[in-house]
Amino acid sequence: LNRSFDAVSDSRTRLLFAIHSVHRSGWAPGTGGNYSALLSGNPFRLLMSPSGFDKGRLQESDLIEVDEHGRKISGAGNPSAETLLHVAIIRQAEARSVLHTHSVWNTLLSEHYADQRELVVSGYEMLKGLSGVTTHEHREHVPILKNSQDIPALAERVADLLEKNKSFHGFLLENHGLYTWGATIEDALRHVEIFEFLFEVLGRKLSFNGRS
Length: 212
Ligand SMILES: [Zn+2]
Description:
Elements: H1 3-24, E1 34-41, E2 44-48, E3 64-66, E4 72-74, H2 83-92, E5 97-101, H3 104-112, E6 118-122, E7 139-145, H4 151-164, E8 170-173, E9 177-182, H5 185-211
Helix pairs in contact: 1-5, 2-4, 3-5
The protein binds zinc ion.
C-alpha cells in the first residue's frame, strides 16, 4: 500500500461517515443530496456520491471520482448533475469538502425568505460552530439563489457570489436545499449540523410567532 492509496481510502471512509450521518438525521431523504471531498487539486480529482442512490445504503465502493468538468474518472455510478456546483465551491471558497442537503427546514426557509434573497442568523450560541466565528453576536448571511436545472449557469452564479464575498459558510437554493462546505469533511459536516439546527430554530420560531 502506498501513501496516496491510504489517503484516498481514508477520504472514502470519512466521506461515507458524513453521508450516513446526514441521511440518518433526515436532512436528505430518498436519493436527495450530494456529497464530495477533494482528493487532489492538480489533476483535479473529486470523490463524490453517485447520483440516484439511496444515500443511507451507500457503501465506500459506490463512491465515484470525477474531474473538474464533472466527468467520471472511476466508479460504477453516474455523477450528479450538480457536480459543477461542487467544483465551483471548492475553487472559489478554497474548500476541500462540499455537502448538500434537502431538509424540511432549509426548504421551508428558502421559500419564506426568497424575496429577500438571503436570510440572516444572529444571536445564537450555535453560530460558533461555523469556522472562524467566535461570538453569538456574529451575523451570518445565507444567500438564497433561484433554483435552476441549468447547472452550468447556476455554477457561474455560485462562483460569482463566492468570489465577491469569502465570508459565507453556505447558501440556499430556493425550494431546493442547502450547500455548505469546509476545509475538511468534518468541518463541512459540522456546518451542516449547525445550519440545520439554526434553520429549525428559525423555522419553529416563525411558527410560534404565527400563532401568537
Ligand atoms: Zn439537490
